[in-house]
Model the fold of this input.
Amino acid sequence: MDKQKANVLSASYDLFNNDNCPVDRLTLAIVMDDTRRAVQGISAITQILGANSIERDVDEGQPLDGHTAHGLLMAVRALSDMCVERLERLTPQFDGRRT
Done:
């Protein structure tokens, strides 16, 4: 894709670009670090849940109980929602609607 087309798409669909992010560097650094830590947590939880699905298929496996697995899924959902919300609040044109 050429640069002109990318710019048109960016202007239409990207939440962030050089023209619309008036946030100071410290605020941006804090939000980005929080997002990094949340994504690391999501990665760890999905690894646990992946291993859990294998444990269910093994004859002598020890899978997580349903409540624990569900709680981990809800944690992933909460972390994801938090990341999206924090990032969206950085932009002035965000009006609270999710796409």
